[in-house]
Request: fold
Amino acid sequence: MFLKEQEQINQNIIEFLNKQGYPGREDLEWSAIPFSGDWGISTSFFKIAAQHARDLRQKGEQPPPVSELAQTIADQVRQNIGIPSGFKRVDAVHGYLNLFYEPLEFSRRVIDTVLEQGNRFGWGHKKGKRILVEFSQPNTHKAFHVGHLRNVVLGDALCNILEAAGNEVIRTNYINDTGLHVIKWLWNYRKFHDGEEPGEDKTRWMGDLYAEANKRLEENPELENEVRALYARWDRRDPDIMALWERTRQWSLEGFDQIYALLGIRFDHIFYDHELEKPGQDLVEELIRKGIAIDERPQGPVIIRIDDLLGLKKETYRVLVVLRSDGTSLYATKDLPLAIKKFEMFNPDLSVYVIDVRQSLYLQQIYKTLALMGHPDWAERCFHFSYEIVNLPGNVTIASREGTVVLLEDLVREAQQRALGVVKEKNPSLSVQEMIEVARVVALGAIKYPMLARDNTKVVTFDWQSALDFNGQAAPYIQYAHVRANSILRKLGESIPEAPSFQSELHPTEVQLIELIARLPNEIQRAAQEMKPLHLTNLAYELARAFNDFYAECPVLKAEGPIRANRLRLVAAAQQAIANVLNLLGISAPEVM
RNA sequence: GCCCCAGUAGCUCAAUGGACAGAGCAGUAGCCUUCUAAGCUAUUGGUUGUGGGUUCGAAUCCCGCCUGGGGCGCCA
Reply:
C-alpha cells in the first residue's frame, strides 16, 4: 500500500551501497516489521555482508563475522538515509534496518483507501489472464459428504481469490452422471426398488441406495454379471435404460442444486460426462490409429504406455488405461476430450483441476497424454490443485461405498441447531427469523472454515466435537468481530464522520489493527499467486483478533472529538476489511449474532 | 519394488530461508452498572521425528534413516 515510499527508499539504499563499494544488488527484500505494535517496513543486509566477506577473503583479508558486518552496513545506511519523509524513526538493529511509519499519516491513508474502495478494497488490477477452474465434480447416484465439502469450499474460495487478484475466472463443474457406479445404482433400483421415489432429502436417498447396491454385490459377487449386462445395455443406449437413467439422474441433480444453493456456490458452466462419452470413445479410436494407444481388445483394454512414448527409462507416468476391454468408457476416456473441450470453448491461460491428492498420478497422465496427442501448449497450461482428503477419527476413510459417511445435510443441520441454541442464549432480543438466519450463517461459516484453514497437504480429520465448537480460532470468532464493529456503527446512528484535520496519538491496538488492514491487498495477491486460501484465513483471524483487542482497549462512542471520529472511521474500515476477507473465503459476515 | 505427502506444545494447527517458533483447544487464576463476554487479561506448556549437509542464518532447502498416510492396467 506504500509501494512508492518503499521503492524510493530501496533506490536510495542501493545507490548508497554501490557508492560505498559493497557488492551490487538490484533489489532489497522488504517485509513488515514483525513486532506487534510497531508499524513499518524492514530489510536486512546479511546477504550483502556475506558476499562482502567472501570478496574480502578472496583478497586475502580477514573479514569480521557476517552478523557484525551486516550491522555495520545497517548503521551506515541508517546514517545516510536519515529519516525519509512519512517515517518517524529508523533503527539499525541486529543487521536489520527498520523504518517505522509516521502512523498518523499512514493510518489516515489506509482508512481513507478502505472507505473509498469499500467492498473492492484489496482487489487487484486486471491482469488480462483467464483461468478456468473445475471443482466439485460430484457423482450422481451417490452421497454428498464432508469429504466433498472440502473440494467445494476450496474451489469456491480459490475462484474468489483468483478473481479478486485481477484474473478472469470461469467456474466450472464436471458432474459424473455415467459410469459403473451409476449402473450399479440402476441395477439395484430396478431389482429391489422399482417405482420408488425419493423423499425430501434426495441426495441422502440416492446415497443410501448406492451403498445398498454395493452391499448386495459384495454379499453375492455372482450378481456382477447382471451389472455388466446392464452396462452393455447402457452402452447400446437401450431406450428403457436411458429413460430410467434420465429420471434418476435428475433426482441427484436437484439434490446438488439444493446443496450448492445452501453453500452459496455458483458455476458458470457445467460439464456432464455423458456428453463426453461418445467423443471419448471416438478419441480413443483416433489414438489407436495414430499409434499412441495400444489396442489389446478383446483380451485386454486400450492402454497408453506413456513412459515408452516419452522415452523414459525410469517408471514415471506408467500406463494409462483409456478404454475397457469391452469398449465401455472410463474416467480417462472422458477426461481427455474434456481437457480439449475446455480449451476449445474458453481458451484459458490456465486450466485448474481441484481434485484430491489421490488422483495426482492420474492427472499427470492425462496432461502428458494431452501433450502426446499434439497439444503440448495446452498440457502446460493444466494445473492440478491438489488437496488431502477428509478422514474420520481413527484414520477412517470416508467411503460412500461402505456407508462410512458424514452427510453434509446432517452436518449442516446439527451445526445450525447448535448455533441456534447459542444465539437464543446470547442475543434473545432478536426475532425468530433473525435467529434462524444468524444460525444458518454461523453454522455454514463454522463448517467451511476448517476446510480452508489448514494447508492443502494436511489431512483434515472430521470430528463432531470440534466441528461444532464455535469458540476460539473459528469462523464465528471472526464473524463476531464483524458484528461488534457493526454494532458500534449502528449505535452511532448517523453516517461515518469525515476525517478530522487534527489527529492524535494512536493506541498500540489501533496501530496493529491498521497494519493488518493494510496487508489485505498483498495477501490477496499472495494467496492467488501461491493458490493458498490459507493465507487469507490466517489474515481473517488475525484481523478479528486485532479488532477484539482494539475493542477491549479503546472506547469509540464514548471517546471525544477527533479521537472519536478517527476511531469510528477505523471501526468502519476494519469491518469492511473483515467482510471482504470473509467473502473471499465464501463465508458470510453477519450484522448481528 | 517405484513414486508422492505428512511428522512443530497434551490435542488441532500457524509460521515469504531471517529477529525471541506463534495461535486455538484443554488446564489454572481473573474481568460483564462501561460500544454484544461467541469476548478480553494473566499463566502453564518446545532438543520443530532422527542423523548428516548447504548457508552469515534452517521448522523451512539437499541426502540418509524412522513412523504414519496415499498412489501405482480395465474404480472414480
Q: What stands out?
A: The domain at 3-101 of chain A is CATH 3.30.1360.70 (Gyrase A; domain 2). The first helix of chain A runs from residue 3 to 19. Chain A has three domains: 3-101, 135-391, 408-584. The two ends of chain A are 32 Å apart (CA to CA).
